[in-house]
């Protein structure tokens, strides 16, 4: 029997509470996703210096696979949320299966290209001759292990989109726990070095997929499933939602390379301090993506239920929750910036650079969190190209404009550029997102 969808009513606070209930399990799942690579790096730094070096070189390729994964994940999440709103759990698995076909073809093609081009990639990244063979072998094995995470991603997004967010978070927690434990046991106990990483990734993928299937079996999505026939709407979702999201992540990855290029001439302390601040920023922005996803899931359910008149109220509730969250988070980062910098950066010279960054940019995390929430929402309700148009000027502007000011006045010029763009974003992104929602859902509040 189809579940009755209880949409957030027109009372904003009630909407915030419902969105918060969705957001918290998404939040701790995403926090685990951010922390896991940091823990793996910490393990590898104690196991094998070459393993840490080769894994660092793999990061650009990892960002490419993350971009593909996010495009598939969010496309399927949107489809599952629409099915929940329509009261059609039987549509969830056939749509996900269709996305496996398309996603598997794309993911497999990219993986094969990376596997075949691994020697050229080693040359491009200027891997020392003595490490080239190890790098090529490492990349090829980890590409194979990566393939296991495609079905995991589609299972978790089906659970999350249909409302089983705790089960989806449990999949992430189990997969991360097994990956970390395997990396530690094999890294310290077997002498495998860098080869412990693809084995750990594969072990985590198998564990996560097994748990995800068991979680699905316990839901109405499994009990009501229909034949896994081809669903053409899967391609529509991938084109309208997944494509722009994937491109946005590629733009973000490119900007990360650009920012490292900007700070590189200022020396290792600045580079390390900036990297520490960037890692902290990634963690700080996790609540914004969780709130944005929870808001979009709610809005997509309302769309599926034929209640466009409540969609705008849901968006206002989500943005209101983001305002409340980031008014606290920004102060929590900016006020204790000196001890916080020492905690995350370690060495005094590096910590001083991290503190400089947080002193200039820290308060504007409040603006950035709200902006990211708005962009995540419109990405997941069919406004992917608008989100892309908002992302490109910001991320490429930080590199182009930031480089000019950094060369003119020092690295502070880059930091003030970031702060200014963060403040500008909060004046434009929520406004444009609201206009997009009003135009798309004419039955909503004006």
UniProtKB/TrEMBL annotation:
<dbReference type="GO" id="GO:0042910">
    <property type="term" value="F:xenobiotic transmembrane transporter activity"/>
</dbReference>
<feature type="transmembrane region" description="Helical">
    <location>
        <begin position="168"/>
        <end position="189"/>
    </location>
</feature>
<feature type="transmembrane region" description="Helical">
    <location>
        <begin position="356"/>
        <end position="378"/>
    </location>
</feature>
<keyword id="KW-0813">Transport</keyword>
<dbReference type="GO" id="GO:0005886">
    <property type="term" value="C:plasma membrane"/>
</dbReference>
<dbReference type="GO" id="GO:0015297">
    <property type="term" value="F:antiporter activity"/>
</dbReference>
<dbReference type="InterPro" id="IPR052031">
    <property type="entry name" value="Membrane_Transporter-Flippase"/>
</dbReference>
<keyword id="KW-1133">Transmembrane helix</keyword>
<feature type="transmembrane region" description="Helical">
    <location>
        <begin position="317"/>
        <end position="336"/>
    </location>
</feature>
<protein>
    <submittedName>
        <fullName>MATE family efflux transporter</fullName>
    </submittedName>
</protein>
<feature type="transmembrane region" description="Helical">
    <location>
        <begin position="26"/>
        <end position="45"/>
    </location>
</feature>
<feature type="transmembrane region" description="Helical">
    <location>
        <begin position="195"/>
        <end position="217"/>
    </location>
</feature>
<feature type="transmembrane region" description="Helical">
    <location>
        <begin position="96"/>
        <end position="118"/>
    </location>
</feature>
<feature type="transmembrane region" description="Helical">
    <location>
        <begin position="138"/>
        <end position="156"/>
    </location>
</feature>
<feature type="transmembrane region" description="Helical">
    <location>
        <begin position="385"/>
        <end position="408"/>
    </location>
</feature>
<keyword id="KW-0472">Membrane</keyword>
<dbReference type="Pfam" id="PF01554">
    <property type="entry name" value="MatE"/>
</dbReference>
<feature type="transmembrane region" description="Helical">
    <location>
        <begin position="276"/>
        <end position="297"/>
    </location>
</feature>
<feature type="transmembrane region" description="Helical">
    <location>
        <begin position="414"/>
        <end position="433"/>
    </location>
</feature>
<feature type="transmembrane region" description="Helical">
    <location>
        <begin position="238"/>
        <end position="264"/>
    </location>
</feature>
<feature type="transmembrane region" description="Helical">
    <location>
        <begin position="57"/>
        <end position="75"/>
    </location>
</feature>
<dbReference type="InterPro" id="IPR002528">
    <property type="entry name" value="MATE_fam"/>
</dbReference>
<keyword id="KW-0812">Transmembrane</keyword>
<keyword id="KW-1003">Cell membrane</keyword>
